[in-house]
Amino acid sequence: MEPDNRTRWRCRRGMLENDWLLGHFLAQGYAQLDQEGRDAFERLLDYPDNVLLDVVMGRQTTVDEGIARLVPAIRAATQASAPA
């Protein structure tokens, strides 16, 4: 399932790094998420920019198991689209 406009808009962040990470995940991995994964992604978008980046980069952990399962998929999608 493709993300709706609200989700796309919520991925627009104040930090360029988050814009890049989330934008690439929307393009590469979001469509493969089930409803539980999409719900976890929406909860991740509730995090402040600095916390979101730290969680995705592995510098901080989260107690939300759904988000913890989602983080590797976000990393994989962004690594697949990173310039060589």
From TrEMBL:
GO terms for cellular component: cytoplasm. The keyword Chaperone applies. It comes from the Bacteria. InterPro entries: SDH (IPR005631), SDH_sf (IPR036714), SdhE_FAD_assembly_factor (IPR050531). PANTHER family: FAD ASSEMBLY FACTOR SDHE. It comes from Thioalkalivibrio versutus. This is FAD assembly factor SdhE. It is found in: Cytoplasm. GO terms for biological process: succinate metabolic process. Belongs to the SdhE FAD assembly factor family. Keywords: Chaperone, Cytoplasm.
